[in-house]
Amino acid sequence: MTNPLDRVPPHLVISDFLPAADHVALIDWTLANQARFEPSGLGRERALDTGFRNSLSLRGEGPRPWVAPLTATMMPLVPGWCAALGIAPFTLDQLEFDMVAYNDGAFYRRHVDTGVGGGRTPRPGSAAFRMITAVYYFHREPKRFQGGALRLHSLAHDISYGDVPPTQNSLAVFPAWARHEVMPVACPSRDFADSRFAINCWVRRTPPAAVA
Ligand SMILES: O=C(O)CCC(=O)C(=O)O
Ligand SMILES: [Fe+2]
């Protein structure tokens, strides 16, 4: 397949991403913070459209003690990710995180992670400056959900796709412009603790100087 638009977007999968102790601590922390999860919503306004995105996200101003260690782990890896994904180097801004739980029937339809603003100049911190999406997968053992693959689609509609399973303690990395979706999850117990958990991490660039 020679047309770049027809190809599955470039992506990486890193197995056993966190040391076992950190991974277990993260699961424990997440289950202890169940009350802070709310319907995920879409975009800056977090508009609810449960026919498009149907999951729960960690919200509120409470502490997220995993942000600093994850940032420290990921930042040094970004240049290598750029090289592997064919992304030209850029000036790093902060990393942005979202913790998400997918329980029975949850999914996220096809989308890109770079907002497509309606002609307005994006504000610093906007999704428009997301370059790379990294998704960390974790769940309680034994695993009590099925499905939930990350499906990466070719830019050309319905030509090709590749599935990445949400494997325990793995990280999927892809360009934020790549179209992707989360396939439906089945979680018969409906217990929050049995959810497919993910931490989305977006690597943003600092806004480039305005083009005259
Ligand atoms: O959980 C995943 O595999 C991807 C989630 C996603 O696409 C998103 O939250 O933007
Ligand atoms: Fe996404």
Automatic annotation (TrEMBL):
Domain Fe2OG dioxygenase: 91-205
Origin organism lineage: Bacteria, Pseudomonadati, Pseudomonadota, Alphaproteobacteria, Sphingomonadales
Domain of life per record: Bacteria
The protein's required cofactors: L-ascorbate
PANTHER family membership: EGL NINE HOMOLOG-RELATED (PTHR12907), HIF PROLYL HYDROXYLASE, ISOFORM C (PTHR12907:SF26)
InterPro entries: HIF_prolyl_hydroxylases, Oxoglu/Fe-dep_dioxygenase_dom, Pro_4_hyd_alph, Pro_4_hyd_alph_FE2OG_OXY
Gene3D superfamilies to which the protein is assigned, alphabetical: q2cbj1_9rhob like domain
Pfam families given in the database record: 2OG-FeII_Oxy_3
Keyword set, alphabetical order: Dioxygenase, Iron, Metal-binding, Oxidoreductase, Vitamin C
PROSITE patterns documented for this protein: FE2OG_OXY
Name the UniProt record assigns to this protein: 2OG-Fe(II) oxygenase
